[in-house]
């Protein structure tokens, strides 16, 4: 079933408990259903409480897995999106190729009735309500919401992707924005479409949408996706207020400058776990909220609180603010280390020693523009048994 509110405790213990509960065969059979046996591990991946190799090892210790298993392939999708980001950089924030319509044919803002969950399409309104309440959606619901936004309401995929990213507890720039591009048809060969029959097959009854704007054939939906016609908004009625951004509070006093003989480990929102075991003893951990990183200023309260709670037991002090404020907090440090993270490209302090995050697959040097092409070339990383 879709998780209840506050189902993601911000602890590594909670993350490991979810790993122990994964049933990969049930996942493979039911993953497309909103009430299917999905893992709900995504917030812990995004924020670095877990790595992909340790999840694979934890599940494989209890269940037989092989490289072609659907659960393993879904883990691979996360690394594929990072592969595309590595090769294209900020290019993932623009259409990778033309979609059904020119970029200029789409609006640059989310309509009020969609933001307020009053479109009159139950599947869409339920998705928006769950997104706001939980910061999480089943992947199928994400695809439905993106498809409706782009192809029926004619909103540019980038506006929709930025909106969803702001509300997701597991929001990852590469996974989120490239998924929206796949739906839009700007990173795939055709637009992703769905209808009321598809919702009835995979969602609970209260999501079903007979007689609504999506209750039509795929041929009709494809014609709509290629038309510039925009349906009229829903009738005015009370809507759901959209949660506002919530920045982390700044410390009352800034962290003191590090001692010149000290080694500092930077703990950031995408790596909420301890330093590697081979770090020198006595390393001092400094929390870092990089407000200049993509999307951070738009995070909602649930995500900010999740990161704060997960970071608190790991750090001695915390700096919230600009690169200049971080530099002041690190003044005089003998050495600074951190887990590497593409969200922080261009924001690292000078001279930082970056540690590669453990990966399931080795690097694929040739850029692959489809998952299938990447999957054929990706080889398990050293020490990964697949």
Which helices and strands, and how do they pair?
Elements: H1 12-21, H2 24-30, H3 42-46, H4 52-60, H5 70-88, H6 112-115, H7 122-134, H8 139-152, H9 157-167, H10 173-184, H11 196-202, H12 218-225, E1 263-267, E2 284-290, H13 301-311, E3 317-321, H14 323-330, E4 335-339, E5 353-355, H15 371-377
Parallel strand pairs: 1-2, 1-4, 2-3, 4-5
Helix pairs in contact: 7-8, 8-10, 9-10
CATH class of the largest domain: Mainly Alpha
| Radius of gyration (Å) | 22 Å
What's the number of structural domains? 3
Structural category is: alpha/beta
Q: Mean pLDDT, as a whole number?
A: 93
Strand order across the biggest sheet?
Answer: 3-2-1-4-5
CATH topology of the largest domain: DNA Cyclobutane Dipyrimidine Photolyase, subunit A, domain 3
Shape: globular
Per DSSP E runs of 2 or more residues, the count of β-strands stands at: 5
Gap between N and C termini: 30 Å
Order of helices and strands: HHHHHHHHHHHHEEHEHEEH
How does the major sheet shape up?
Answer: 5 strands, parallel
Question: From the 3D coordinates, which CATH architecture of the largest domain would you assign?
Answer: Orthogonal Bundle
Q: Tell me the fraction of residues in β-strands, as a range.
A: 5-15%
Task: Give the name of the CATH superfamily of the largest domain.
Answer: DNA Cyclobutane Dipyrimidine Photolyase, subunit A, domain 3
Low-pLDDT segments:
1-5
């Amino acid at each position: 079933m879709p998780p209840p509110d506050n189902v993601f405790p911000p602890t590594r213990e909670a993350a490991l408990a979810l790993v122990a509960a994964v049933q990969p065969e049930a996942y493979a059979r039911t993953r497309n259903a909103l009430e299917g046996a999905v893992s709900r591990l995504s917030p812990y991946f995004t924020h670095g409480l877990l790595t992909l190799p340790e999840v694979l090892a934890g599940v494989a210790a209890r269940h037989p897995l092989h490289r072609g298993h659907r659960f393993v392939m879904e883990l691979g999708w996360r690394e594929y999106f990072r592969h595309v980001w590595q090769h294209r950089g900020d290019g993932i924030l623009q259409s990778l190729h033309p979609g059904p319509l020119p970029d200029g044919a789409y609006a640059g803002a989310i309509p009020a009735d969609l933001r307020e969950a009053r479109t009159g399409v139950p599947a869409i309104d339920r998705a928006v309500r769950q997104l706001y309440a939980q910061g999480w959606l089943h992947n199928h619901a994400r695809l439905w919401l993106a498809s409706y936004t782009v192809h029926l309401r004619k909103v540019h995929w980038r506006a929709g992707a930025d909106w969803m990213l702001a509300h997701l507890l597991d929001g990852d720039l590469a996974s989120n924005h490239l998924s929206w591009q796949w739906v839009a048809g700007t990173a795939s060969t055709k637009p992703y479409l769905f209808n009321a029959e598809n919702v009835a097959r995979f969602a609970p009854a209260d999501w079903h949408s007979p007689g609504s704007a999506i209750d039509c054939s795929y041929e009709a939906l494809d014609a709509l996706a290629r038309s510039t016609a925009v349906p009229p908004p829903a009738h005015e009625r009370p809507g759901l207020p959209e949660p506002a951004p919530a920045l982390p509070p700044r410390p009352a006093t800034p962290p003191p400058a590090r001692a010149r003989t000290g080694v500092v480990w930077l703990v950031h929102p995408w790596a909420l776990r301890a330093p590697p075991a081979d770090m020198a003893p006595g390393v001092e951990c400094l929390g870092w909220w990089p407000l200049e990183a993509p999307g951070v200023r738009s995070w909602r309260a649930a995500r900010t609180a999740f990161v704060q709670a997960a970071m608190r037991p790991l750090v001695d002090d915390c700096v919230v603010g600009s690169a200049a404020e971080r530099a002041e907090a690190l003044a005089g440090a003998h050495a600074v280390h951190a887990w590497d993270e593409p969200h922080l490209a261009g924001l690292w302090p000078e001279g930082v020693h970056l540690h590669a995050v453990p990966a399931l697959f080795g690097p694929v040097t040739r850029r692959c523009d489809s998952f299938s092409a990447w999957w054929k070339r990706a080889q398990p990383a050293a020490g990964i048994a697949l």
